[in-house]
From TrEMBL:
Protein name (record): BTB domain-containing protein
PANTHER family: SPECKLE-TYPE POZ PROTEIN (PTHR24413)
Organism superkingdom: Eukaryota
InterPro entries: BTB/POZ_dom, SKP1/BTB/POZ_sf
Pfam families, per the entry: BTB
Domain BTB: 8-84
Sequence intervals crossing the membrane: none
């Protein structure tokens, strides 16, 4: 774990956690944090297997990797998540990619939305996008001349 700089700083000084008998990790499920620790020790995460991927798990793991500055795990999460983009989940993935500074995932989500704009536009998750992202997507669609058919 010494290669995990945030924990090293927490244990070696400057943080209130360095004098505590245990470190409490909040905001993450046990399963997600266990996978995070697995990656730190082995450079592998079994939970990112495309055949059994849970999008919620992968997005949560991406959030942990971002929070604790583990770029290699962020990249693995981005690659796995990109393979599971659908019309229904692309807005959630795009929001997470934007919040978690995941540029490859963000770019892939943008491309997916541009290719399926009419379908994505009709989803509730699209309507729930943060205003800045919604504006950016609409501007990009306009710049590309994306057309939406009406019936």
């Amino acid at each position: 774990i010494a290669r995990w700089e945030p924990l090293e700083r927490m244990l070696d000084g400057g943080f209130r956690e360095d004098s505590a008998p245990e470190i409490v990790i909040q905001d993450h499920s046990f399963e997600v944090f266990l996978a995070f620790l697995q990656f730190l020790y082995t450079d592998d995460v079994s939970g990112l297997d495309p055949a059994h991927l849970s999008i919620d798990f992968a997005l949560s793991l991406l959030a942990v990797a971002d929070q604790y500055l583990v770029e290699a795990l962020k990249r693995k999460c981005e690659v796995s998540i990109q393979k599971s983009i659908t019309v229904e989940n692309v807005a959630l993935m795009l929001t997470t990619a934007d919040q978690r500074a995941a540029p490859a995932l963000r770019k892939r989500c943008f491309e997916f939305v541009m290719a399926h704009f009419g379908e994505v536009l009709g989803t509730q998750t699209f309507a729930d996008l943060p205003p800045a992202l919604l504006r950016e997507l609409c501007n990009e669609a306009s710049a590309r001349g994306v057309r939406v058919g009406y019936r």
